[in-house]
Amino acid sequence: MNPDSDKTMENALAPSPVEREPSDELMRRLRTMAREKPRRTWWRSGRALPFAMVAGTVAVVFATTMIPAKASAKSFDMVVRAAQRINAFQFSILTDESPKREALTIAGSDGHVYLQTDGDGSMEIGPNGISAYDRKANKLTRFKFGNLVDPATAAQMAGAVQSELAAGLKEMDLKKVLEEYRRKYAASGVHVSPVEREDGRDVYHVLLASPSEPERVEMTVDAATDLPETLEVATQEGGRWKRALRMEMRFGARVESRLLRSPVPAGAKVEEIDLGAMVGDATKEIGKTMENLGKQLASQGARLKGP
Amino acid sequence: MESAPSDGTPVARDRDELVTLFAGDVWRFASASVRCREDAEDVVMETFAAAFRDFDGLRRVDNQRYWLLDVARKRVADCHRKRYRRAERPLSEADSASAPAPSPLGLAAREALGRLPDPQREVLTLKYVSGLSVEEIGLVIRRSPAATNSLLQRGRKGLRKDLGLDDLPESNPTGEKR
């Protein structure tokens, strides 16, 4: 690097006075946090394993004798069953795999699913059609499933165009993913912690891990609803666990309402395409769009389920 | 306080000392990487929360400073994702962590830095704000010195182009001081 150029860069990026040191308030908060009693994740037991086992046993005995049944004896089956009752959901998915991180948000309610990918735009899928918004072009394309043909043909057409997308969404189905986990780890790999208090709420942790599996899954579950709040998939790399995917979940009333409506600005260009009236090559172009999004979803779903 | 044998970076023996030693480093990296003071503070808090969760493990890492910067850059990337998702919310000038801006060039540089791909932005920030060498940056981002240097070159080129500094002499790809 040329010294003059390097110096210019250094000057340009030099921290301003505000940036040089953290504020007193931030330092105070950090020191307060430093003095808080450490809250170890229960399965990272290490030397504390015997203590954790005794504490766990005491907690289970206490739970079964003193606490109403709702808060005790949590199991992974309860999580799987709770997932079957979901009517509104929000998944924020982040993958850490190189060379780039990918983020995807999916929210759904009342038969509508809304997807926001990392940079290109968003999509809404409903019973009557699909809308794709291209943020860069500020253009909304509405694909209708057809008024010009009979419902059966429209469904068939929509099905053909949607096939890749549908396959991707299927992979992202939490119910299916949890069932898959149950099958894979049923023998010896399901570990459920006692209910504990974290950030003012009762939660429990589920660890799905088996010596025969190259990945493990950790979940934090809301004890009141038995629905998972976070799910992390880690894979082994050089003897160490490395996070491959993190998913944050919200259900029911906790779903952010802004995600359950179209993010398309009022001035966006709109194009309407009637899939029912289209034939031949015309559907192929649309199919490609769906295929790309479907592949992205399938890839996220595959990561979620592990190798 | 003990010193790490490798490069003299101090080692924190307890959580309070960790804050004393490295809060400034993490803050400078975070505030140079995100646009809002609140976001920068969140990055710092989350980074130290991660460190405190397994402080015993952190005692055993080779260099606590690199470890913290590595966590901070991941939190910054998370922050950029969230920012993207709520990008429709306008940012006021008062929100800017870099206010008061050091100079028009500094302000423009920060804007341009934010437009670079994550890896290039990270290495430029680690070099020019955190003051790390190429080898040290490589340890933080877990890439070879050659790959790190290549990222730096591309980042500088992108930044120069964005800032209209192309009249400066081209960098020498093999002449990077390490």
Q: At the third CATH level, what is the topology name of the largest domain in chain A? A: outer membrane lipoprotein receptor (LolB), chain A
Spatial extent as radius of gyration of chain B: 17 Å
Please give the number of β-strands of chain A. Answer: 13
Order of helices and strands of chain B: EEHHHHHHHH
Tell me the domain tally of chain A. Answer: 2
Shape of chain B: globular
> Poorly predicted ranges of chain B (pLDDT <50, ≥5 residues)?
1-5, 85-101, 168-178
Mean pLDDT of chain B: 77
With strands numbered from the N-terminus, the spatial order across the biggest sheet of chain B is 1-2
The structure class of chain B reads mainly alpha
Describe it for me?
The complex is a heterodimer of chains A (307) and B (178). In chain A, 36% of the residues lie in helices and 29% in strands. Chain A has 307 residues and is α+β, with helices and mostly antiparallel strands. Chain A has 2 domains: 3-35, no CATH class; 75-307, Clam (outer membrane lipoprotein receptor (LolB), chain A), CATH 2.50.20. Chain A starts with a helix and ends with a helix. Chain B is mainly α. Chain B has a two-stranded antiparallel ribbon with strand order 1-2. In chain B, a hairpin with a 6-residue loop joins strand 1 and strand 2. In chain B, helix 1 (15-33) crosses helix 4 (64-85), helix 5 packs across helix 8 (145-163) and helix 6 crosses helix 8. The longest helix of chain B has 22 residues, at 64-85. The chains are: A alpha+beta (307), B mainly alpha (178). At the A-B interface, helix 1, helix 2 and helix 3 of A face helix 1, helix 2, helix 4, helix 5 and helix 6 of B.
Key words describing this protein structure:
heterodimer, A: 307 residues, alpha+beta, outer membrane lipoprotein receptor (LolB), chain A, 2 domains, 13-stranded mixed β-sheet, 36% helix, 29% strand, globular, B: 178 residues, mainly alpha, Rna Polymerase Sigma Factor, Chain: A, Arc Repressor Mutant, subunit A, 2 strands, disordered N terminus, disordered C terminus
